[in-house]
Design a protein that fits this description.
single chain, 38 residues, mainly alpha, 1 helix, rod-shaped
Length: 38
């Protein structure tokens, strides 16, 4: 049971990291556009 919990935690952590990278990659060009307009 403990191994399954560690595997689930690692999986969630990986998803958070991947989603975070994608979110930053998508948000970065948007923030650049907003800052260039100002």
């Amino acid at each position: 049971m403990r191994n399954a919990w560690h595997f689930y935690y690692a999986l969630v952590l990986m998803i958070k990291v991947v989603c975070g990278d994608i979110g930053v990659a998508l948000a970065h060009p948007l923030t650049k556009r907003y800052t260039s307009r100002r």
